[in-house]
Amino acid sequence: MRIIIAGAGDVGTHLAKLLSRENMEISLIDEDRDKLGALDTNYDLLTKVGSPTSLRDLKDIGVNGVDLFIAVTPLESVNMTSCLIANSLGAKRTLARIDNYEYLLDENRSFFENLGLNHLIYPEVLAAREITESLRTNWMRYNLKLSSGNLELCVVKVREGAPMLYKRFSSGYFSHGKYRVVAIKRMGETIIPRGNDQIETDDLVFIVCKRENRNYILEHANKNIHEIKNIIIFGGSRIAQKAIQQMPSDIKIKLIEPDRDRCYALSERLTNAMIINGNGNDMEFLKEEGIEDADAFIALTDNTETNIFACLAAKRFGVRKTIAEVENLDYIPMAEGLDIGTVLNKKTITASYIYQMLLDRVDVRNVQNLTTADAQIVEFVAADGSDVTKNKVRDLNLPADTNIGALVRAGVGILVNGDTQIMKDDVVVVFCKSHVIRKLEKYFK
User: Fold this and answer.
1) pLDDT digit string, tens, across residues 53-84
2) Which stretches in the chain have pLDDT values below 70?
3) What is the pLDDT of residue 233?
4) Which pLDDT value is given to residue 15?
5) CA atoms of 445 and 435, how far apart (whole Å)
6) Residue 128 and which of 166, 196, 225, 388 are 20 to 30 A apart at CA?
7) What local confidence, expressed as pLDDT, does residue 82 receive?
8) pTM for this structure?
C-alpha cells in the first residue's frame, strides 16, 4: 500500500513513524526541510521538501494512483485544498484534518465525498469524546467499546487489597467466563499474560468483558464508582471547549484559563461553565476555587509538563479522577508512573482512526491504537476456511505478543478461552503488540 502524508508536524510525523513499520510505502511532504531531516535518516520512508498545495510538488512525489493521501498540516484550508488537488491528480482516497465541526455532520458527508474528500478527522473532537466517556466510567483509566458495543475493553489500575492480585493465570482464578484479562502494563512494559504470570500491585490491567459483567471487575479489582458532579478544567483549549459542550447540563464546571483575553472569548462561547482567569498550577488559587470539593480535574493546556504537575496537585488535594493531555509521547510512561490518572494524546487517537482507513477491508472491522500500551485492539473477521477456524484457540500457534480476548457470533459477544473454536464470519477481538498486526492477517484470510 502506498501512502502520502502532507504535513510533518506532530501528527504527521507520528503517523509516518507508525506506518513505516507496517511494510507500507510512505512518503512525507512538508515545506520545512528541518522537520524532515531526522525522519529521512532514521525511518524507511521518502521525504520531500515541497508545498502540499503545489501541483508540481504533488506530481513529483507520485500522487497519481496513491492508495491514500493524508493531509494533517496545522491549517484546515491547506489540508482540504491539498486533498482536492490530490484527488484530481489521481489519488484513490483522501483524508483531511479539519477544525470545523460542521463539516462532520452526516448531512454534509456526501457533499465532501462528491468533492473528493473521502474522510475528515477532527482530533480535538475525538479527544473530547474520550474525556466525556472517561468521566462516565470514572473507576477505569480507559474504556473502549468493541464490536459495535457488544463487548468492551476496561483498563484499571489494581491497588493493594484487590482479590485478583497474585493469582497465577494457570490457577483457574480467571476461568469464570465473566471477563478476560488480555494484557498487563507494568513499569512501562506491556505483558501478554501466560499461565505463570500474575497481576501485581499498581499494574494497569486490560480486561475484555460484556457490559453487564462490569460488576465482577469492580469486585475483583476492588474498585468503587463515584458520582461526578463538580469538575475543574485547566486550559481553555479546543479540546476543553468540545468536552464542555458534550457534558450533561447537571454537572457544575469551572474552567480555569491563564489568558485574560481568552477568558472573555470563552465566556461568550460556553454557557454551561464558569470561566475563571487564573493559574491551575497555583496551589493556593486551586484551594480558593474549591479543588478539595471537585470530583474530577482535567488539565488541557498546551504544555504537557504543566498538565502533569496540575494533576499531581489535584491528587494532593484528594481529587479522585484526574485527566491530563500528554502530547509528548516520551512523557506518557512517566505520567503513568506518577499515577496522574487518565492520559490523553491526540496523536494516538488520530493514528487509531487512520489505521481503520488503511485496513477498511472485509476481513478487518476495527483497529484501535492504545495510548496506554504498546499494543492494538484489532477486530478481524474470520473467512471461510481460514487458518484461524481450523483448530481450537490453544492450538492455533499464533504469533508471540498476541491474545484473542473475545468474539462476536451472530451479534452475540462471547469471551474466548483455549477451548474456543472460531467459526467463519466470527468477528474476533485480538489484543496484540503493534508489530504483530500484519502477521495476524494471514490467519483470518
Assistant:
1) 999 999 999 999 999 999 999 999 999 999 99
2) 21-23, 40, 352, 355-374, 434
3) 97
4) 84
5) 19
6) 225
7) 97
8) 0.79
Whole-angstrom distance, CA of residue 230 vs CA of residue 222: 24
Contact of 69 with 91, CB cutoff 8 Å: yes
Query: Would you state the pLDDT for residue 445?
Result: 86
Whose grid coordinates read 477456524? 389
361: DSSP letter: B
| Torsion angle, alpha carbons of 410, 412, 413, 418, to 10 | -60
95, containing H or E segment: strand 94-97
**Placement of cell 476543553 in the chain:** 240
Which residue in this structure is represented by grid cell 520531500? 48
User: Pairing mode, if any, of strands 296-299 and 151-157?
Assistant: unpaired
Packed helices 10-20 and 33-42: angle between N→C axes, nearest 10 degrees? 20
pLDDT at 367: 61
CA-based nearest residue to 277, from 301, 300, 261, 292? 261
- CA-nearest of 6, 24, 43, 10 to 355 is 24
133 exposed, middle or buried (CB, 10 Å; 0-12, 13-18, 19+)?
middle
Q: How many CB atoms lie within 10 A of CB 51?
A: 15
pLDDT of residue 376: 77
pLDDT recorded at residue 362: 42
Residue 245: strand, helix, or coil: helix
Record the cell numbers describing residue 263, joined without a space: 477568558
Which residue has cell 480476548?
Answer: 405
| Cβ burial, residue 374 (10 Å; 0-12/13-18/19+) | middle
